Amino acid sequence: MRYPIVLIALLTPIAGFTQDWEDRQVFGQSEAAPLRILSSTDTSFFAPIIEDFIAASPDISVEYLVTGTADIDLIFRASPEQFDVVISSAMDLQLKLTNDGFAAPIEDVDHPDWAQWHNRLFAFTSEPAAIVINRNAMGDLPVPSNRQDLIELMRGDPERFQGRVATYDVRLSGLGYLFATQDARASETYWRLMEVMGRLGAKLYCCSGQMIDDLREGELIIAYNVLGSYARKEAEASNELMVILPSDFPITMMRTVLVSTDASNEQSAQNFVRHLLRLEATGDPATFPLPPLVRSDENAPQRTINLNPALMTYLDQMKRDAFIREWEDAIVQND
Amino acid sequence: MTPEVNVSGSLRNRLVVILTGGAALLAIILYVVVRILAAQIAQQGQDNILNASMSSILDTAVLQDGRVALDFPYSSLSMLTTGADDRVYYAIYEDETLLSGYDWLVSPRDLASDGTHFESTTFADDPLRVATGSRTLIGPDGPRNVFVSIAQTQDALSDTLNASTRNVALLGLGFFVMSSAVAIWAASTTSGQMRRLATSVTRRGPQDLSPVAKPVPTEMAPLVGSLNTFMSRLDHTLTQSEDFIAEAAHRIRTPLATVRSHAEATLQRVERTENRKSLQAMVRAIDESSRAAGQLLDHAMVTFRAENLERSEVDLADLLDELVLRMTPVAEMNDITLTTKLDRPAMLLGDAILLQNALRNLIDNALKYAPAETDVIVKVTNAPTLTVSVSDEGPGFADDEIETLSGRFVRGKNMGNKVGSGLGLTIAQEVAAAHGGTMSLTNKPEGGACVTLSF
């Protein structure tokens, strides 16, 4: 409860001026004002996409600004005219922005119906929440394949896991909150898992990136609900990391993009979104390094979060307060 | 031929206009009514879902540690998913305090206390439908009222309405087209009855005054009845006048003959020139009257017999031989030679008395107008058609009179002081017509008139 209030207090005065971005890069050169993209996605994933876009329209420059999903919502709501395109993995916050009229329509886009909402919000990735483990630190313990395995594994060897398990801090991360609420909606196992992790003094993170870093360095053994796409990329580089999609039901998130109604570069912004969706449809990893939408039902147990107004349920202030209270009761018990 | 009729509009067109106009009006009414019904039904559907969503949220309201809490299920909002991705807004109030949701939506002050309150409003130019309900929770410190409003945009609703509007418009158009076809058919059928009656009346011969016997629709019965009455009256009048003429001619001829024989006898006895002259004029006038009476009698007879023609085989050549033989004395009196050129046989199915009467009148006319020392030629040809012609070497017909001379009592200008009634050609023509033939009047190039009957 305290954290968001502090965060709001910190962010509000500086939103319009100098912002502490996680990353900020300018692509291309142009006399005109750059296309400002507010995003929660690491620059490394988006650089090829933006470069491809600039190659197609060389007279445009792009300013790519990265921050957390909860920050994006706050910053964008405070000054929607400052940004042209908003990209976030927090589907619920994005949908609420669209519902509240912050998104401009983009007509005649050839995109699956289930991957867009109200012609304004477009999903362009399918990314599951994963369990990531450090193989070395696990030793000879069996590799868990689902949530129940994970609970039993941690209960079986509390000394080893004490202070070395992690998950999102749902109070700070919009994506973490989305994963947690969808998880809790699907199964009671989530609460048991949180209680077990709470007893083990779980560390809470704002972002997937830091969790993966700490895993690789061996500070953590297990992280739960990590963004699978980031973890897979790191796992390719280092042997220690292992990415597990829970076999019972992996929660799958779709990254979404919208164009601000107050965009100063509305035409370029729309062109960028069209370009992005075109690259997604092509699915060439060289220009689209993110996992594209899963168009068929090949992974049956996969649980993709649907784009519909129900996403706003857990954004309700009372529901959010109640959920965070329960979550804190489960996981922050020892702090 | 047809006399001028004062025509104003057309029954058929009037019917078509009234029926298609009515059909168009009905189609428009149908369209409007169905459109309104469809809108009501669609709105009812949306209201039901909004009501369900609102109730499911309101049902979760509980007092928890002295505070109102609502832990509403995911389905409350997911049930509002529509194909058009309609946006959803909600507001939860405890009395005047917003617990969560959108503060601009509805404030509890506007609400009726009982049941679900529905309202249409707009948000950012989009039409919005709002359902609001309330519930009272009884806590230790008294009752607390919870209000829940759920609002949804109407994109899916208007999509549905547009689709149904299109279908209803097609329905209305189809209805109109079919009704118009029926209207045109009905109008044609109705006016067809009139046209058939008119045709059957028009096709009648000039003598046919029998009543219309074919069945006619009720609406036309008074008209046809009047027509029948009118025709029978006309027929009666005509018959009466023919009878009257025949009777009168007959009654006149007999005393005239007596008067004439007295005049002739007196002429033998009178010596003084002026007295002889006036007696001669008297005889002449009596002749003229007697001839006219004869011809009137002939005409009445012709009219009567023509209506009920008795047909038998008649050889026109034999008939003419006899006729010429009988008239030769009259011709010789006038120094005229009667010549016949007869093709044999000249058979005709007809009434010998009528034919004889007609030909006698023609020869009589020719003898009357032919100058002395000339020929009157009576000719019969049997190929290619049967014709009888009588020609003289007299002054001929005036060109401008050829068309009208066969009318009753019409006499030519070239007749000088000859005695005549003007009925001769009429009789000949009526006989020809009764036998399905024609009469033509011509002037010969070398001078003289020629009357030809073709059968």
UniProtKB/TrEMBL annotation, chain A:
Pfam families: SBP_bac_6
Signal sequence segment: none
Keyword terms: Signal
A GO CC annotation given for this chain: outer membrane-bounded periplasmic space
Domain of life, per lineage: Bacteria
Protein name (database record): Bacterial extracellular solute-binding protein
Native organism: Octadecabacter ascidiaceicola
TrEMBL record, chain B:
EC number: 2.7.13.3
Cited PROSITE patterns: HAMP, HIS_KIN
Domain HAMP stretches: 188-239
Listed transmembrane segments: 15-34, 168-187
Entry's Gene Ontology molecular function annotations: phosphorelay sensor kinase activity
SUPFAM superfamilies: ATPase domain of HSP90 chaperone/DNA topoisomerase II/histidine kinase, Homodimeric domain of signal transducing histidine kinase
A Gene Ontology term for the protein's cellular component: plasma membrane
Protein keywords: Kinase, Membrane, Phosphoprotein, Transferase, Transmembrane, Transmembrane helix, Two-component regulatory system
SMART domains xref list: HATPase_c, HisKA
Glycoprotein as UniProt keyword: no
Cross-referenced Gene3D superfamilies: 1.10.287.130, Histidine kinase-like ATPase, C-terminal domain
Annotated protein name in UniProt: histidine kinase
